[in-house]
Amino acid sequence: MRARPRTQPQPTTLTSRALRFFPRTDSAVVRKTLIGSLILGALIIAAIVTAVATGPVDIPLPNTVRAVLATISGESATSVTSTQQAVIERIRLPRVVLALGVGMALAVAGTIMQAIFRNPLADPGIIGTSAGGALGAVIVIAIGLSGSVLWIPAGSIIGSISALLLVFAIAFLGGRMSIATLLLAGVAIGSLLGAAVSTTILLTDNITAQREMFFWLAGGFEGATWTTARIVAPIALFGTVIAVVASRDLNLLLLGDDEARSLGINVGVFRIAMVILAAVLTGIAVAFAGIISFVGLIVPHAIRLVTGPDHRHVVLLSALGGALFVLLADTAARTIISPAELRVGIITAMVGGPAFIVLLMTTKTSRSSL
Amino acid sequence: MNPRKLKSVLILFSVLAINVAATFVAIGCTDEEPTPTPVPPTSTPIPPTPTPLPPTATPVPPTATLVPPTATPAPDYSAYLDVPGIVDPTNFDWPREVESSEGLIVLNQPPALAHFASQGHAEIAFGLIDTSRVAAIYSFFADPDISNISDHVEGIPEIGSEPEEVVSLEPEVIVVSKFVNPDLVAVFKESGIPVLRTALEGRNGDIPNILLLAYMLGAEDRGLELAAEVASRLDFVRQRIVSASAPEGERPSVLTVSDFGQIWAAGADTNVDSIIHDAGGINAAAEVESFQQISIESIAAMDPDVIIITQPMESGQVFAETLMSSPALQGVGAVQNNEVHVVLSRHFTTLSHWNVRGVETLAKMLYPELFADVEFKDFETYDPE
Amino acid sequence: MTATLPRNPLLASRLTDRGPSSISAVGGAAAFSAKDLSVRIGNSNIVDDVSLVGNFGELLGIIGPNGAGKTTLLKVLAGLLKPSLGCVEIDGVDLEKMPSSTRSRQLAYVPQITGAHPFTALELVLMGRYPHLRRFQIESEDDTEIAIEAMERMDVAQFKGRRVDTLSGGERQRVLLARALAQRGDVLFVDEPITSLDIKHQLLALQVLKDEARDRSVAVCAVLHDLNMAARFCDRVVLLAEGGMIDEGEPGCVITERRVAEVFGVRARVTRRARSNGVTVDLIEPSD
C-alpha cells in the first residue's frame, strides 16, 4: 500500500474553508475589477446621460428624464410632447443600447482574439468573420432584398458563419488545428472575402445600391431600433459573461499550448469554443452596425496598459471600455456637425488610429503588449 | 477620363481603409456625376406638352432661331463675351481657342467627335449637337433614374471604366468636370487628345457651360437658343414667385433627402439648395454643409414643410412610408400635411441645365395655384431641323 | 557530495523495500509508466517502442544526444502529445482517459522556455495554482504563500514583480520551475531544467527537485544534458538514442565509457565514485 502525503494544504477550519471562496479584497484581480468597473461604470452612466440628452431636437433635461422613465415604466409621461417622447424612446435610447452592445461585443471579441493568437495586433476580424459578414450584407443589398430591416443583418450573420466554417475547414485540413493554420486560413479567407466584397460593389450597376453598400461598410448606428438593440445587447452581454467565465483559461492560452495544457485546459476544444464565441460577437456587431474599426484592437490594449494583462479583469473591463468607447464615438459622430452626422466608424478610426500609435510607442515599457 | 473608374477605385480602397472612406464621402458627396442623391423613375408623368414659353425679359439676348440661316445680318453673339474659357469671344471663325486649367485648346475645325466624361456635360452636349458627334456613353447615361438623356443614347457606343477605351475612340476633344482624376486626364493628354476641364454648377441653368461647349463644338447658334430657353424658363419661375410676393421668411421650408441605408440631406452649397431657393423655398437643411448624413431626429428638429425624396421611385416610396410613419416625425409639418414627395431625381441630382426642370417641378409643388395654368415640359435635345 | 538522506521515514522504507532501479514496479505503485510508446511523425519514429516506469520519491533522468526523442518522450509522458502507439498511465490511471483538470492537479510540466507574455513572475507562478482553484475562485493567501515559497526555493522571489519577458533565460527557467513546484503535482516532468542556469543555480535547482522527490514523495522526471549532473542527482537514468531506449538503471551502470563513445560519439573517462552511487565523466574529445 502506498500512502502519499496529500499534495495540497487543506483549510483546516470551516471558516478558512469558507474564506477560500470569498473574494479577498486585497487580491489585485478583485481590486482592479472592482475599481475598474466602478470607474468605467460611472463613465458609462455619464455617457448614457449625455447621449440621451443631446441631439438635434432640443429637449429640456427634465423632459428627457421623464421620457426615459416613461419608456422604462411603459406609461406616458405628462408634459412631454409626443415628439419628445418618440425621439427619446424610439431614436436615442435604442441607439444608445445598440452602441453599448456593439462596443461590448467588439472589445470582448478583440480581447479573445488577441489571447488566442497571442498577438496584440489581432482584431475581431482577423479570422475573416467581418469580411464574411460584409459580403453577406453586400450581397443582400445587391439582390435588392427589402421589406424588413433584418434582411441585411441576417445576410451578414450568414456570411460570418460561412466564413468561420470555411476558415475552420481549411485550418483543420492538416489534422490538428494550430494557431498558425487558423491565422493563415483566417487572413486568406478574409482577403478573399474582402476582394469579393469589392467585386460585388463594382459589379453592382445600381448606383443607389452601390452607395448603400459603401455606406453600410463604413459602420454606424443610425438604423438602431428596439428590434435591433434587443437582438444585439443580450448576445453581447451573454458573450461577455462566457468570456469572463473563461478568463482564467485565456491567461493560460497566452503561455503557449503546452503550458496551457499542462495547467489544465483542453487547448484544442477551448480554442475552438473561444474562436466561435469571438466570431459570434463580431458577426452580430458587424451585422447590425457595419464595420467599426479599431474598437476590438484598441480597447483591450488600453485596459491592459492600465490594469495589467490578467484576463480576469481585462475581459470585463474591456467589455465596459468598449461599450463606453463606442457610445462616446457615436455621440460624437452625431453631435460634432449636427444636424448632420459623421460615420461612427470614421470617429473610431480617427481616435483609434492615433491612440493606437501612442500605445505602440509606449508599449515597450508598459504592460499592454501580449 | 472615366468617372466610373474613379469611383470604382475609390470604393475599392474605401473597403480597405475607413480613412479613405472618409475622403470618398467628402468627394463623393460633392461629385456631380452620381450625386449622393439618387434617382427615381417617372413619378407623375409630365407630358411634354409644348407650352408657349412665357415672354420674359431675360438677360440673354434674343434667340437666333428666328433668323433664317441664309440671312446676312450676323447673329448677336454678345452673350459669349463673358463666358470664361473662350479666348477671343469675338472670333467665330476657325481656328478657335478655348482655355481651361488643363491648358489651351486650338481647334481648326468643329470637332467631329467629342467625349464627355461627366453626365452633366453630356446632357448639355446632347442639347447642342447631333449625337453622332458624341464618342461614347457610360452605362448610367442610359439609366432613366439618373440620366435626362437616356432616351437619346441609342447607337452611341457604351464604354466601361478603362481610359484606354476612350482613347481608342479617338475623340478630338475630351470634356471633364472638376472632380476627374488628374492622372487620368494626363493619360488623355499624353495620348494627344486635348482636354477641357470645366466646373458644372447645377445652378442658374449652367448657362456659361452651355455657351462654352457650344462655342467649342461650333454650335454657337444652337447654344444661344438653348441658353435663352434655359434663362427664360428659369426667369419665368422666379418672376412668378416674386410676383406672389411671399416674403423670404414665410416661404415654405423644403428638405431634400434620400435613403441609402442612411439618410442623406442636401445642405447649403449644393445645387439642390439653389433649386429650392429658385423654386421659392427655404432649404430646411441649410445648416448642413453640402451633402451629409442626417438622422430621423435631425428631420424632426428641422421641421420642414415639404420633404422631397430624390431617389428611384420604388425605394423612394418605401422611404416616404418610413418617414410618414416614424413616431418622431408626427409633429413635422411635411408629415402632418402629407407633403412628403418622391420626385424625379434626375431633375435634381444632375448638374446641368436640366436642374431648371427641378426648379419648375418644385415651384409647382410649393405654389400649385401660382403655376396652375402652366404645364412644364422637358428640354429638347438637338434636332437638325 | 550532497547525497541527501530521505527525511520521510515512510518514504525511506519504501525506497529501501523496492530499490531505486526496479523497472517492473509493482502494479499500481508506479507514479507513471509507459508501455510500448511510439511517436511517429512522417516516416520516422521519433520515439520508438519505449517502455519505462517512474516511481514516487525518485528523480529519473532522461539522457541522450540531440534528436534522441527526449523532449518528445517527455511530452507524451506529460500528456501533451498523443503517442502513435502505446499508452501512459499515471498512478495506475490511463492518461488519455484522465480529464485535463485532474491531470493538471497531478502532473506538472516545465518546458524548456516559456513564450513571450506580459505576466509578472509572481502571476506566472500563481498560475500553477489555477488547477486547484474553482472557476471563480481567486488565489487565496495560502496560494500566494505557496507560490512565494516555491519562488524562494528557486531563488527567484526577488523577481516577483518583474515581467517575465524582462528576465534572463536562466531566471525565466527558474520561474517556470517555481511554478511547477507551486502546482504541487505528484509527478513532475521537467525539460532541460538547468540548460541556461549558472553553475550555482544548476546545483540549486537539481537539489530542489531531488528534495521535492524525497520530501514530498513526488516522481520527478528530467531531461538532462549534463552527464555529471545526471549522475550526481538522478536515482535512475534512461538513455535514449534515435528514439529507442538503449539502457536504464543507476547512473553508474548506464553511464560508461563505452556508452558515451557509442551513443554520444565522445571519448570520455568515467570514474566511479566510491562513496556515492555516482560517477564523474571527464569529456576528452569527439571520438570520430
Could you please describe the fold and organization of this structure?
The complex is a heterotrimer of chains A (370), B (385) and C (288). Chain A has helices at residues 14-20, 28-53, 61-73, 82-116, 129-143, 151-171, 179-203, 207-217, 226-245, 247-255, 257-262, 267-289, 295-307, 311-335, 344-362; one strand spanning 340-341. Among the domains of chain A are: 118-291, ABC transporter involved in vitamin B12 uptake, BtuC, CATH 1.10.3470.10; 292-370, no CATH class. Chain A contains 15 helices and 1 strand; from the N terminus they run ααααααααααααααβα. With 370 residues, chain A is mostly helical. Chain A is globular and about 65 Å long. Chain B is of the alpha/beta class and 385 residues long. Chain B folds into 2 domains: 78-231, Rossmann fold (3-Layer(aba) Sandwich); 246-366, Rossmann fold. Chain B contains 13 helices and 13 strands. In chain B, strands 8, 9, 10, 11, 12 and 13 form a 6-stranded mixed sheet that branches. A 3-stranded parallel sheet of chain B has the order 3-6-7. In chain B, strands 1-2 form a two-stranded antiparallel sheet. The two termini of chain B are 32 Å apart. Chain C has 288 residues and is of the alpha/beta class. Chain C has a domain at 108-185. Chain C has helices at 9-18, 70-77, 100-106, 121-126, 141-153, 169-183, 199-216, 227-233, 251-254, 257-264, and strands spanning 32-41, 44-54, 59-63, 85-90, 93-94, 107-110, 187-191, 219-223, 236-241, 244-249, 266-272, 279-286. In chain C, a hairpin with a 6-residue loop joins strand 11 and strand 12 (279-286). Chain C is globular and about 55 Å long. Chains in contact: A-B, A-C. At the A-B interface, helix 4, helix 7, helix 8, strand 1 and helix 15 of A face helix 1, helix 2, strand 11 and helix 9 of B. Strand 1 of chain A pairs antiparallel with strand 11 of chain B.
Topology:
The complex is a heterotrimer of chains A (370), B (385) and C (288).
Chain A lengths: L13 H7 L7 H26 L7 H13 L8 H35 L12 H15 L7 H21 L7 H25 L3 H11 L8 H20 L1 H9 L1 H6 L4 H23 L5 H13 L3 H25 L4 E2 L2 H19 L8
Helix pairs in contact in A: 2-4, 2-14, 3-4, 4-9, 4-12, 4-13, 4-14, 5-6, 5-7, 5-8, 5-12, 6-7, 6-12, 9-12, 9-14, 10-14, 13-14, 13-15, 14-15
Chain B lengths: L2 H14 L1 H13 L65 E5 L2 E5 L6 E3 L2 H8 L10 E2 L19 E2 L3 H6 L4 E4 L5 H9 L4 E3 L9 H11 L2 H24 L9 E7 L3 E4 L4 H8 L3 E2 L7 E4 L1 H7 L3 E4 L3 H13 L7 H4 L3 E3 L3 H4 L5 H12 L19
Parallel strand pairs in B: 3-6, 4-5, 6-7, 8-10, 8-12, 12-13
Antiparallel strand pairs in B: 1-2, 8-9, 9-11
Helix pairs in contact in B: 1-2, 6-7, 7-13, 8-13
Chain C lengths: L8 H10 L13 E10 L2 E11 L4 E5 L6 H8 L7 E6 L2 E2 L5 H7 E4 L10 H6 L14 H13 L15 H15 L3 E5 L7 H18 L2 E5 L3 H7 L2 E6 L2 E6 L1 H4 L2 H8 L1 E7 L6 E8 L2
Parallel strand pairs in C: 3-8, 3-9, 6-7, 7-8
Antiparallel strand pairs in C: 1-2, 1-4, 4-5, 9-10, 11-12
Helix pairs in contact in C: 5-6
